[in-house]
Design brief:
Elements (H helix, E strand, L loop, with lengths): L19 H23 L2 H17 L11 H22 L22 H16 L3 H12 L4 H8 L3 H17 L3 E2 L3 E2 L3
Antiparallel strand pairs: 1-2
């Protein structure tokens, strides 16, 4: 068992983010999905990375408040991330960045560039191709839970199946997609 790295000792309802091993396991399993969701919402890699870091920091601080009866660690982290993203978007709306004449350039600064439209289309084709490889029930579960950001409980209620069935479908679908070679039909091999 790992020694807690959190200043407070966590109790029986702990998410285990307070240990080296627990934090490492969560990072390995969830960091990619959290980053993808943040980037989809924010459209900026740097802001997405910041949002994931803030999500993990909040989760680490609230480790002892995790309730496994309310959902998995993944669901808990996604709820925290949703709050982080909402907070960030509200802050950006209230305090728009100030730009002076010295900051204005010819627009060639790559840090300010949005993803190319062709990249967006290729990414969409890639997602469609990968989803098409999944069996129907798994594909539907992934689309509803991951892409449409719906709660497992809501999807299970719509389908008339237990929540565990939806979680299992998503788990096996993601496992299958991780092993799947990544390329988009018409766009050639992609390396991401």
């Amino acid at each position: 068992m790992s020694v807690p790295i959190h200043p407070q000792m966590c109790g029986p309802r702990c998410a285990r983010l307070c240990t080296d091993a627990g934090l490492t396991a969560v990072l390995a399993a969830e960091q990619g999905l959290l980053h993808w969701r943040a980037f989809q919402r924010l459209g900026d890699i740097g802001l997405a990375e910041h949002a994931v870091q803030e999500t993990l920091l909040r989760a680490w601080r609230a480790c002892a408040t995790y309730d496994p009866m309310r959902g998995s660690v993944r669901t808990w982290l996604q709820s925290i991330e949703r709050n982080v993203l909402t907070d960030g978007l509200r802050m950006r709306a209230v305090r728009p960045s100030e730009t002076g004449w010295d900051d204005v350039s010819d627009g060639s600064d790559s840090r300010l560039a949005r993803p190319d439209f062709a990249d967006s289309v290729a990414d969409g084709l890639l997602v469609d191709e990968l989803l098409a490889r999944l069996p129907g029930p798994q594909r539907h579960a992934v689309v509803q839970v991951i892409l449409r950001d719906r709660a497992y409980q809501d999807v299970a209620a719509d389908l008339g199946v237990p929540v565990g069935t939806v979680k299992t479908r998503v788990h096996y679908a993601l496992q299958s997609l991780r092993r799947s070679p990544v390329h988009a039909g018409a766009t050639g091999t992609r390396h991401r």
